[in-house]
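Researcher: Structure for this, please.
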Amino acid sequence: MASYRFFRESQWWPLDRLQEYQRDRLRETLWTAYTQVPLYRDRFDQHGIQIEEISKLCDLVQIPAITKDDLRAAYPDRCVRKTNYPAREFFTSGSSGRPFAVMVDSRSMSDARALMLLRANFSGWRIGEPILQTGMSLDRGVVKRTKDMLLGVQYASAFNLSDQALDHCLSLIEARRLQYVMGYPGSIFFLAKRARQLGFNNRLSGIVCWGDNLYRHYRDEMEAAFGCRVTDTYGCGEGIQVAAQCEEGAYHIFMPHVIVEVVDDTGVPVGPGTPGTILLTRLDPGAMPLIRYQVGDVGRKGEEFSCPCGRGWATLEAIEGRDTDVIITPRGNRLIVHFFTGIFEYYPSIDSFKVTQQRPGAIHVEIVPRSEFRSEHWEKIKMEIMDKGDPDLEIEMSLVNDLPLEASNKRRFVVSKLLSKKE
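Model: Predicted structure, token format:
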């Protein structure tokens, strides 16, 4: 809550004060990374980087970007440090489909969770107002159950999107007079479609989306069904919250928490409005510093302007993310991208995967295995997909040496050949 109060206040600071704060935190982060993390010390020395010469944000270009592969190779001995706070391991596969572990301490996580509350405030929501939230697991655990109780959260699976499950969510909204829905845009999109099919006419006060791309037709469907503004947000599972969309439509960057660069293929920043690779620098070294971290997304930096909302935080014009698809099961369930990443990311014996649906009722899973992969791992994954998704789903698997990028140079790891993008 201390972090929440700080971020809530700092959003109204003038830009020059925010930039000065960023510079101070950046110097502290770079120095900690250099003196306590072998991966960064070696990279800085190798490229002749003098920390004291990085006095402005534009000087960051001297530092080479760091990738997931760089961090995988160094994890944990050469990229994790001890802090004064307890730390735990988080797994994410993001849009690449490859398992990736990060260590996040409780201080860094407190900042991230504070910004989760603040990003919801952008929709008009206030702490204490009950909500419907769609998420990855109904097994909430003690801490999350306590959070749900304190914040009035009615929790629903983002992966069970059958008509029966969607009807239950609509009943909850009506019976408990819920005014806000938050979660993965793919799940809320199908909830909105179901609401319109049934003639559901309860209006909401706001919708907040995270985790996946919020496509234009997703937003249109939600706003038409529930008669409210949709607030899009952007963050990553590595313990970084990045931006949220204000009432004027601008994506405000959480400047006291993160530096966002949009760069070309050589790592040089591009101008406002130009698409480029997103690099993130968390302004808290935490247990695992992330400096010019190539998260794997594409975006466009916003123009420098004074937003009519009054916030001083700089903006992103757009987060273009990655393209994903939806798998339809024999029983009518709809499996979005995070259904699969939520399973595969816990199997470090798998390097990467791709799920393809070419005919109704069946999927083909391609796996790039690591040396420790065993057939029983596949059997467990298959059973988990069927148990959580649909027991009637026909699943085939093949082991491959590599999964090439698409012609667009993007890595899609859930591909449906059955649906148009607007289904």
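Researcher: Any notable elements?
Model: The mean pLDDT is 91. The first helix runs from residue 2 to 10.
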